[in-house]
Specification:
By secondary structure, this protein is mostly beta strands. The chain has one domain. Helices cover 9% and strands 38% of the residues. The protein has 4 helices and 33 strands. The strands form 11 sheets. It has a 5-stranded antiparallel β-sheet with strand order 1-2-33-30-29, with no helix packed on it. The chain has a 4-stranded antiparallel β-sheet with strand order 3-4-5-6, with no helix packed on it. α1 crosses α4. The longest helix is centred in the C-terminal third of the chain and has 23 residues. The chain starts with a helix and ends with a helix.
């Protein structure tokens, strides 16, 4: 076994130069390098005359992905969140944006590069709406739900096969979109922070359903489900108390949404721990103990009979910022198999935000295969009393993969993490992931991993819900493209043969150099 491990390590070391390379869950993960950057202007407006909503959720249409020469083209679907909301939420109509990409990767190892390898065009902005019993239609809204739940009009009661859903003071269903996927029948699922909810829409944006959500993450205040996130619009009341006693924390709902490659399993993740799983003694203990979050699985084999099948604990990474211990909340999930996912945890620092230098912003790998399915178990309601995980529960396995903050890679494109003379700092929020094949016959396990930011509609020339706004800064929408390799671990015999071949080749090269 030791000889096989040594042989495998030697074979891996013979590959292309890499930032990171590890064996995890039966696969070899290799980061080659950052190969592309693309931008969309901060003041870009869509067909409705409103400021483009950046990337809170991202889905790649693999069927559209093609290669001609060294240029790739494809279509993406992006979900913006609840609209510009620095001074309270607004009646922004949630939508799904269709993007067309043209991508020509930079040459390996090149430096002094421009930020134009990824070309992005907004081709469609589809507003999300429902048809009322009267036959009229109305859009969803980004407004914070009314405090108090059903009794105050802050929620619609469960009816007609739909679960209870959050509602704003104007009678519209409230949606803070954070993830999007397309099912086999063409319908779209959109994950929401308010409920947290998972809504289903037809391709034209028409509301056609919502998935049942586990009670463990429904927010409770004063003994009732209360979907307010403590972000009221002008003239509307704030919730009392400000924070739920249980369920998802404010603005920490369903942040990651993804479908397994075989199209049979849906994954959705809470951004950080539910309130009952946090040590809320002080603000500091709460910030340090929200790491035990939950990921849910649904069987989507039949899009019309979707079933909740699993609930698992994923422990988020912690980091030190000064004297404080903080948790990097997850911002996106991307399924690699029926149990293995990429996860994007990050802190809250970036260009003109926080310390400006991000301390943790990376793509990690998680595997649910050995984790405890807590759905329906006696400890499902509270998994981490006082912020400490119940020892009866096995959390998902997790490891690091791609460090987005790596200056050596960012600097090649004029980018950086933090304040560095001559380079542009990355923005705070990175919330989109997509993985597409390199279509390289010589390297069949190579992919492009796209990471996209959420600019929070930050522009000095914005327009939403009938009014202009000025955020005081301009943050472009950005995509980063990394070339990665995800390949099966070689069988022991194959590893030894590969090592022998590598030794022979290496010896021949050495002899040639000496000659």
């Amino acid at each position: 076994m030791l000889r096989t491990s040594m042989a495998l390590a030697a074979v891996l070391a013979m590959g292309l130069p890499a930032q990171a390379q590890m064996v995890f869950g039966g696969s070899v993960f290799t980061v080659q390098e950052l190969v592309g950057v693309g931008r969309m202007a901060a003041n870009l407006r869509d067909q409705h005359g409103e400021t483009f909503g950046s990337i809170s959720g991202l889905w790649a249409d693999a069927a559209s992905w093609t290669r001609v020469g060294n240029t790739y083209t494809g279509t993406f679907l992006a979900a913006p969140d609840r609209g510009y909301n620095i001074a309270g939420t607004i009646d922004y109509a949630p939508r799904l944006n269709t993007l067309q990409m043209s991508f020509t990767p930079a040459a390996a190892g090149a430096t002094g590069l421009p930020q134009n390898q990824i070309g992005l065009t907004l081709t469609q902005a589809t507003r999300l709406y429902e048809t009322l019993p009267t036959g009229l239609t109305q859009t969803f809204t980004g407004l914070d739900p009314v405090p108090g739940g059903v009794a105050t009009g802050g929620a619609r009661p469960a009816a007609f096969g739909l679960p209870e859903l959050p509602q704003a003071f104007n009678g519209k269903l409230a949606l803070d979109a954070e993830g999007v996927v397309v099912l086999s029948d063409g319908s779209r699922l959109v994950s929401d922070e308010y409920g947290p909810s998972i809504y289903r829409f037809a391709p034209d944006g028409r509301f056609i359903g919502a998935l049942e959500v586990a009670a463990s993450v429904r927010p409770l205040r004063n003994g009732v489900t209360d979907y307010s996130s403590n972000n009221p619009t002008t003239g509307q009341p704030a919730p009392l108390p400000a924070n739920p006693s249980a369920g998802r924390a404010n603005n920490q709902g369903f942040e990651g949404l993804t479908v397994s490659p075989d199209g049979r399993t849906l994954f959705v993740g809470l951004q950080s721990a539910a309130r009952q799983d946090i040590n809320t003694t002080t603000a500091a203990t709460a910030a340090a103990s929200r790491d035990n979050t939950r990921v849910f699985t649904y069987d989507i084999s039949d899009p019309n009979q979707i079933r909740l099948t699993g609930e698992y604990v994923v422990q988020l990474p912690k980091f030190q910022q000064g004297s404080a211990t903080l948790v990097a909340a997850q911002s996106e999930l991307l399924a690699l198999s029926s149990t293995q996912l990429l996860m994007l945890p990050r802190d809250s620092n970036g260009q003109q935000v926080g310390t400006q230098t991000s301390l943790l912003r990376e793509v990690q790998i998680i595997d649910l295969a050995g984790a405890t399915n807590i759905l329906g178990q006696s400890f499902e309601t509270q998994i981490a009393p006082g912020g400490v995980l119940n020892p009866a529960i096995t959390a998902a396995a997790r490891t690091g993969f791609l460090n987005i903050n790596d200056r050596s890679q960012l600097n090649r494109f004029g980018l950086t993490n933090g304040l560095q003379v001559g380079f542009e700092n990355l923005s705070e929020k990175w919330e989109g992931l997509a993985l597409l094949p390199a279509l390289d016959p010589d390297r069949p396990y190579d992919y492009f991993l796209f990471v996209a930011n959420d600019n929070d509609f930050a522009t000095t020339d914005g327009f939403h819900a009938g009014a202009a706004y000025n955020d005081g800064k301009n943050l472009d929408t950005m995509f980063l493209a990394y070339r990665v390799t995800i390949s099966p671990v070689p069988e022991p015999a194959s590893a030894v043969l590969l090592l022998a071949g590598a030794v022979l080749i290496g010896g021949a090269v050495l002899r040639q150099r000496r000659a």
